[in-house]
Amino acid sequence: MPLYDRRTMEGVYSVEQTAQMIRHYRYAEEQMMRIMAGWIALTPELMVKLEFGRQVWDCAQHADILGKRLPELRSRAQVSEPPNATLVMFMQTLANREQPEETIERLVGIFRVLKPHLLSVYAQHLSACNPVYEPPTIRILERLVRETQEHILKGQILLEDTACTVPTRERAVLWQLELEKLLVAAGGLAIGRRYNRTASCQCGRTHLISTPNWTP
Length: 216
Known about the structure:
Helix content is 63%, strand content 6%. By secondary structure, it is mostly helical.
């Protein structure tokens, strides 16, 4: 009896779109690496400092594997590309919390805004990958999803310990809102999607979720 492969050859994204998204992802991972590396010396809390150091290494590895995938997609290797100038401004705003007493803002920027957004984008892209001809992209995205989830969990634990009073929690929420406004204005990192802020988490925190570009 013959074997039949019922998987379809239809894909959601073209090779050019996939390469463009990977350049966007590499930009985000590269920027996180640079930002957290710069924060290490500025952060007085030892546990936060150590976690930044560990995640700098992971972000560097992510940027490297994304960059190595690009030649396989008919694009130059190890190239990063921001989606637009507003996303660059968002990254600059996130990075500019450099005072020793601004650890809460640093943790919020990475672990409540940027990494949750990236996790959403990576997971959405992974769900759209074709299993016939995109296994290399699938393997990369699976690693990014797994490790980004771990990063968010560790960062959230540190944030809970650092922002442990009502005034510090209020600071965290206000900074998160400011950054999310910029991220929404930038349109996020995914192609053909726009991002709306919604209070959808069971613990009452705010996350970015993707909605189709035909949403009114």
